[in-house]
DNA sequence: AGAAGAGTTT
DNA sequence: AGACCCTAGA
DNA sequence: TCTAGGGTCTAAACTCTTCT
């Protein structure tokens, strides 16, 4: 290779390394031996050091850079990151199809795109003139955290997009959404190293991916085997006079051409029957993948039809997630514990003999309410079946009656509050039983907790333990009491040093700048 | 060094 | 992120 | 009578900061 100038050679090397990165990390198809790649990388690094004027943020050498962050900045999403409606059966998919026909006033069959539903964490990425400039977590859907430095280390994330021969061409500003995940083999590899180093192992790919993205030191993130799939382009097809895209399948092809890692297993389907076939197929094949999926995402393909259907406040009407059947486990129900919420509602939860299920050790589960326990005749001492709703929240689904102890008794909900002893009343027509004492410490604490929570006044440093103490010590009787706390009072609390007290008071001060809407919700 | 507590994610 | 319940409105 | 929307519950893993 004959280089004309350092600048030319640098650009040549970058192009080459980008190409090799893409083959290796996106296509899983290495084009060169490691030592050849390392040689080119070293040469580029040397040239960039010798000619510092040539360094650019989209160079393959710049995936890790700089010092650890102090914290993550907040990023407002241009469009909210919504969730999807869920379905758990083929009947529900057929109902979804009917709802679309009704909504559009048209007969099917409709064109759908079926994709795998990855089990990772959602991210939103921004590109300016084809260069990756910012990446954020989902957060509450409206505002997330700026994890750009960590995302830069994800090798399948293109720092620079391929602009040539793209039709339509790359826009100046571009935002895409996708899922960061860790492969099963990647997790094994990391855990082998951690075992070796005497460090605790990670429990499952999803949580290790989520944790890895929250490291303040991106050089550590770089050592975690994170990967990425992109599945959404924002604003595709509108606004603007002429739609640039007509269908989601066209968008997916375009994303791939632009250099994004698009999962190859998506499928165009004509009619819901073909979608169901796809779901059945992947319920079987999922075990063969090196990454976890928890279902299938079904989307109407044509963008103009999507626009006509619109969305509800929490999810688009033109898409549906189909969730695979959840794993189950059998364990012993040790006790039923009653928790008292901020509205006084008594909610039963199950204490379980710990059991490993779908990547976590489960020792608690929700029992929803009194009627639910009665319906399923759940008793303390029973062997019960549990599963995780949406792979997240454990719940008791059934009792193994054959294993029931002979002396077991039906469960009776207490008619007094377990915290303050006041009468717990269930109003006619109501499902929940409530503690009748508005001054009940549990209710007071929960009201204050709600007030300080993110989404409400977002007061940093006011967690459950702090609220517990200030209420117990009678320093705070209602939310207004938070604003009269002072350093001397705080100094008397457990685990409350100078730094913590300062941080909390700063958090309280900061909360005074929240808007009226937030205040209203907080109360 | 180790643990508690808070915050964030699914 | 799911399940459930209640309310309001078609 | 159905359903969209809002509210209120629930569990576990992980990282970071601060305290002991």
What does this structure look like?
The chain is α+β, with helices and mostly antiparallel strands and 523 residues long. It folds into 4 domains: 6-62, Orthogonal Bundle (Helix Hairpins); 86-323, DNA ligase/mRNA capping enzyme (D-amino Acid Aminotransferase, Chain A, domain 1, 2-Layer Sandwich); 328-425, OB fold (Dihydrolipoamide Acetyltransferase, E2P) (Beta Barrel), CATH 2.40.50; 441-522, 5' to 3' exonuclease, C-terminal subdomain (DNA polymerase, domain 1). Helices cover 32% and strands 22% of the residues. The chain is built from 16 helices and 18 strands. The chain has helices at residues 6-26, 34-50, 90-104, 148-152, 184-196, 205-212, 218-221, 248-257, 272-285, 303-309, 370-376, 441-452, 464-472, 487-491, 498-511, 516-522, and strands spanning 74-76, 86-87, 111-118, 121-128, 131-137, 143-145, 173-182, 226-233, 267-270, 293-300, 319-323, 328-340, 346-357, 360-366, 383-389, 393-399, 424-425, 434-435. Strands 2-11-10-3-9 form a 5-stranded mixed beta sheet. The chain has a 5-stranded antiparallel beta sheet with strand order 14-13-12-15-16. β17 (424-425) and β18 (434-435) form a beta hairpin. α1 (6-26) runs antiparallel to α2 and α12 packs across α13 (464-472). It is globular. The termini are far apart. It binds 3 DNA strands through α6, β14, β16, α13 and α15. It comes from Candidatus Glassbacteria bacterium RIFCSPLOWO2_12_FULL_58_11. It is an enzyme of class 6 (ligase). Belongs to the NAD-dependent DNA ligase family. LigA subfamily.
